[in-house]
Amino acid sequence: MLRVLFVGDIVGKQGRKALSKHLPFLTDKYNYDLLIINGENSAHGKGITKKIYDYFIDLGVDCITMGNHTFSKDNVFSFIDDAQKLIRPANLEPENYGKSAHIVEIKGKKIGIYNVCGNIFMENTTKTPFEALEKLLEKYPCDIKIVDLHAEATSEKYAFMQYFKKEVQMIVGTHTHIQTADEAIFDNCAFICDVGMTGPYDSVLGRDTDEVLTSMIDKIKTKYTISTKEAIFSAVVVDIDLSDLKAINIERIQIRP
Ligand code: FE2
Known about the structure:
Elements: E1 2-7, H1 12-30, E2 34-38, H2 50-58, E3 63-65, H3 76-79, E4 86-87, E5 101-106, E6 109-117, H4 129-139, E7 144-150, H5 154-164, E8 170-174, E9 184-186, E10 189-192, E11 199-200, H6 209-217, E12 231-241, E13 246-255
Parallel strand pairs: 1-2, 2-3, 3-4, 6-7, 7-8, 8-10
Antiparallel strand pairs: 1-12, 5-6, 9-10, 11-12, 12-13
The site of fe (ii) ion (FE2) has 6 residues, from loops.
């Protein structure tokens, strides 16, 4: 059996702190084989820096997935091509930086982790997530396939899961920052619409509440300030049977402050 811990969108400093705080306990409790996190909001809510990438690797993270904020920090262009454990959505502009598949070998099986983003309410996308993943699976065939679908719409996430559920063992949604309670196994595939965020809980999706209210009510352009409130931790644990290459269990984890 392969056990995967996938931690949802790490938002800013509080999210990073929550990850390091809860990992020792989760490592003991679940004894997972593979740790994947979504890090696209880890540098003050938008993007990732080299320093934060190194911090995650030092914590024992095996793969960092990204999303629509992949290129928000200029610094990312200086290290993304060398960041072996970082993947970015294949169908997001610019397409020619970094990679969208990370392959590891565990217990004699080739495991592929892939990152694509949805098209609905998402800017700067190129292909559909369907075409993007098909191309990745063709180029990087693996025994076990794990996908982070970084997308907004539940409909798009379900359609994607229905299309790939026989071929892919794990599809998790990220981006909305709100964990959905729909985790289930469909055919061979463990699925959840959204894993939820690891970031400031009493906030607006991790952002400073006052600032978001000012921008929404007074229509004033604001900065992008991340809340300093304590973080919620959101993740899923998925078990995949290595003999018949099917997902057999998915469990939601949510630790509130
Ligand atoms: Fe996002």
